[in-house]
Amino acid sequence: MNDQKQANEKLDLNRVLLWLQADGILSDSDSEKCRQLAAGNIGKGKHPLKIIAEAGVQDKTQLGKLLILENLTSWLADKVGLPYYYIDPLKIDIPTVTSLYSRNYAFNYNILPIMFHKREIVIATAEPYVRSWEADLVRMHNCTIKRVLSNPDDISRYLGEFYSFAKSLKGATLARAEDKSTGNIQNFEQLLELSKSTDLDVNNQHIVNLVNWLLQFAFDQRASDIHIEPRRTNGNVRFRIDGILHTVYKLPPQIMNAVLSRLKILGRMNIAEKRLPQDGRIKTQNNLQKEIELRLSTMPTAFGEKMVMRIFDPEVLMRNYEQLGFNKRELELWSKMTAMSHGIILVTGPTGSGKTTTLYSTLKNLATPEVNLCTVEDPIEQIEPSFNQMQVQHNIGLDFATGIRTLMRQDPDIIMVGEIRDLQTAEMVVQASLTGHLVFSTLHTNNAPAAITRLINIGLPAYLIQQTIVGVMAQRLIRTLCKHCKKPNPISDAEWQSLVAPFKVTKPDQVYHAVGCLECRNTGYSGRIGIYEIFESTKALQKLIVEGFETELLQKQACKEGMRPLRLSGAEKVAKGVTTIEEVLRVAPEGLSS
Question: Which of 77, 198, 239, 352 qualifies as a cystine partner to 149, CB 3.0-4.6 A?
Answer without folding.
Answer: 77
